[in-house]
């Protein structure tokens, strides 16, 4: 199973994982539980999985502007 990681705010591509074991280790680093990451996966009709996360840039922006959390698709 291959998973593309995309920022849920700016839609920037963050990375690509082609091995399920790497997904698990990635989430261990990010301190998410495995049940949490299953919910983040979006199954595309072409068989691809997309995982929506927050990129570093948006994470910084959100940290500086907490009110932006209310806005799903702000642009940088
Ligand atoms: Zn972003």
Describe this entry's structure for a reader.
The chain has helices at 20-29, 34-40, 56-64, and strands at residues 3-7, 13-17, 41-43, 49-53. By secondary structure, the chain is of the alpha+beta class. The chain has one domain. It has a 4-stranded mixed beta sheet. Strand 1 and strand 2 (13-17) form a beta hairpin. The structure holds zinc ion. Zinc ion (ZN) binds at residues 7, 9-10, 12, 55, 57-58.
Bound heterogens, unique: zinc ion
Radius of gyration: 13 Å
Shape: globular
Number of beta strands = 4
Note the main sheet: 4 strands, mixed
Strand content: 15-25%
Rounded mean pLDDT is 80
Major β-sheet strand ordering: 2-1-4-3
Number of helices: 3
Alpha-beta content class: alpha+beta
List key phrases describing it:
binds zinc ion, four-stranded mixed β-sheet, 3 helices, 76 residues, alpha+beta
Helix-strand blueprint:
Layout: E1 3-7, E2 13-17, H1 20-29, H2 34-40, E3 41-43, E4 49-53, H3 56-64
Parallel strand pairs: 1-4
Antiparallel strand pairs: 1-2, 3-4
The structure holds zinc ion (ZN).
Zinc ion binds at residues 7, 9-10, 12, 55, 57-58.
Outline:
This protein has 76 residues and is an alpha+beta fold. It is 34% helix and 24% strand.
């Amino acid at each position: 199973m291959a998973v593309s990681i995309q920022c849920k705010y700016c839609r920037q591509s963050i990375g690509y994982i082609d091995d399920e074991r790497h997904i698990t280790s990635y989430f261990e680093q990010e301190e998410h539980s495995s049940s949490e990451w299953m919910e983040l996966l979006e199954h595309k009709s072409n068989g691809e999985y997309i995982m929506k996360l927050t990129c570093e840039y948006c994470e910084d922006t959100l940290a500086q502007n907490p009110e932006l959390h209310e806005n799903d698709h702000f642009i940088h």
